[in-house]
Specification:
With 162 residues, the chain is mostly helical. It is 68% helix and 4% strand. It has eight helices and two strands; from the N terminus they run αββααααααα. The chain has a two-stranded antiparallel sheet with strand order 1-2. The termini are far apart.
Amino acid sequence: MIVARHDWTFILKIDALLETATKEIIKSGLKLKILNRFVGVEALGDFVDGLPMNGRTSLLHLLKASGCPDEDSGFVEAVRRVRNAYAHNIKFADLALIELIKQQPDRSHTIKNISNIKTYDEAALIASYEKDGIFLRFCILDATMRILFYAYHLALKPAKDK
């Protein structure tokens, strides 16, 4: 498969986009308005920027607590899990994304969340990804765009345009 060589860079880039978008979504939710003035924006922003992606006190935990739909927070979490697998083992650099996912101990959970598909036949879905790796990338891009859409509308769009 031609895309296999570059799946690891694709996932690293997608993860970076998702981490940035997640931070912006959380920062927008943490704004404190006192006497018609936002206070602590810079300090809270610095605090959020320093949080890890995973763990009990993490960006993912805050994202879930903020009411982010389960399928979207699950997607962000699955991308981070795959990213960590690629980033922490250089042997996986040339491994196709679907092959990496199939090797994960929680493969069913990962495939469900990274595909962002509610109802599916796992074996058939994996077979379709093995046949066409671009389809899996498309699913990932589609879900990533939704997270970026949230970040834009919640945090980045100028107030006069909201």
